[in-house]
Structures are given as C-alpha cells and as structure tokens.
Amino acid sequence: MSEQAPDTAGRGLAEEARGRVRFEEEALSYADQIYQVARHLAGSKEEAEELMQETYARAFRSWRSYTPGTNMRAWLLRILTNINIDQGRRKQRRPPERSLEEGDYSLYDRLEQAAGDGSTGDEERLLQRLSQSDVVDALAALPHDFRDVLVLVDLGEFSYQETAQILSVPIGTVMSRLHRARRLLRQSLASSLGGEK
Amino acid sequence: MSKIPCSKCESLLQLYLDGELSEGEVRVAEAHLDECGYCRRHYRFERAFRAYLREALRAEPMSPELKVKLVALRSDAQPGERL
Question: What is the ipTM of this complex?
C-alpha cells in the first residue's frame, strides 16, 4: 500500500475541491442558456423547471466525467435530453401524413402571395404576418425527435456534429430530421396563413 | 426575374445558412446566389426567418426561484444560500 505525505494528499484534495467549485460555477453560468432550450424540449414551463433541477443535480454528481475545456453547454444538454427521453415524459407523436413534397421555399411564396406585390424584398415585413403563438404552436406540434433537433440547431445554435453527440444519434439522422422538421414547421406556418388572401 | 425554382440552390440553402458546407460547396452556393435573384431573395428570407424564429421562441427567463434551487444543488451550498 502506497503512502502519501499528508500535505501532498491535502493539496490534492484542496485542488479537487477547487476544480469542483470551478465546474459548478461554470455549469451555473450556462443555466439561462440551457433553460431557453429546455423550455422548448419540455412540454411545459413546470416540466422544464423539473428537468433543469434533475439535470443540474446529475451534472453536479457526475462532474468528474466532464472533460475541462470541452463544450460544457453541449455536455449539460446531453444530460438534459437523456433525462427527458428516459423519463418518457414526451408524448409520442407520429409525423403528419401530409406530403413533404412542397419545397423549402413554400412559406416564403405563401407569405408573398398573402402580402400581395407590395412587400416583395421586405422579408421582415412579410414575417410580421406570422404570429408568435402560431410559431410556438407549430414547434410544439412537431414530433419530438424532429423538435429536439430543430431546437438544438436553430435555438441552441449547435452544429450538426454537436447535435448528433448530444442526442447520441448519427449525423445523418440529425440532417434528415432537421430537414423534415424545417419543412413541417414551414408547412404548418404556411397553413396558418390559409385564411388570408 | 425568373420564377423557376432552383432545386440545387434550395437543397444547399439550409446547409449554407447552418455553416455546414465545405469550402467548395460554399463557392458553388455563393456563385449561384450571385447570379440568381430568385434564390437570393429566398436566402434573405430564410436568414430573416431564422432570426424571427429565435425571437418568437425566446422563452421567459428562468425564474429567480429556479436559479436559487439550482445553486442549492452545489456540493458546498449552505442552506438558505442566495445567488
């Protein structure tokens, strides 16, 4: 059995304690950003708050498995998405049967038609025809696998590779889900303009 | 102004905006956007749509109560400790 000089062991423990405090402070500094993503991964504000607490409790317990210098925001969201999936809170939704043949340009075309000729070239003005609640509802209505990818890439601003690591799926899966998620979201928003002329 | 959808540009557009194209593909996409007004307008729209999406989906900030609960989970947190 090896023996360590007491002061060496003490220094080691003190260094570990400092490392842990640094880890916890850094993790907490991301809490607002993590919450913004969590809010749309979870079904409600209450679920998002529970998810945050469970995520941080698990993160603080397993702090040694974090490699300093790597992307902590992605590491925390990996824990969060795992908990979200493990707990089976998310209702399984089947993707709509609606055809995905409409291209990515369809929302723009519909907005342009709805606006008439005057707003051509004025993207911000065209977008004002969409209501915030339509956008929130359209996102919430997406099947969760699609929504997770869209939220991580478009709101979390993660790369495809980072998103693949967070969700533990191949990058090709991220790309195909993202492609479908965007089309479904745009189709849904285009449909919300249905009553307009 | 051509109204013919450009399927090639359409398929590259999202990857281009996501910063996921190779250098060669970026050159192809940008050359196409330079010469195609129809795709350029859609590119501008998609860029504006992403900003709109982020803004529309911005959730209320985390509540102060939740922040306190998260801080209390720290290893050295003392009961009643505040931010």
Answer: 0.78
Shortest CA gap B72–chain A (Å): 10
- Residue A35: list chain B partners with CB under 8 A: 59, 61-62, 66
Chain A nearest-CA residue for B6: A105
Per domain, the residue ranges of chain A are: 6-86, 106-192
Q: Which of A80, A127, A171 to mutate to test the interface with B (most CBs of B within 10 A)?
A: A127
Third-level CATH fold of A6-86: Rna Polymerase Sigma Factor; Chain: A (1.10.1740)
pLDDT tens string B4-37: 347 777 778 889 999 999 998 888 888 888 888 8
First to last CA, chain B: 58
Q: Is the domain covering A106-192 a CATH 1.20.210.10 domain?
A: no
Q: What is the pLDDT of residues A52-69, one digit of tens each?
A: 999 999 999 999 999 989
| pTM for this predicted structure | 0.80
B45, B48, B70 ranked by CB distance to A31: nearest: B70
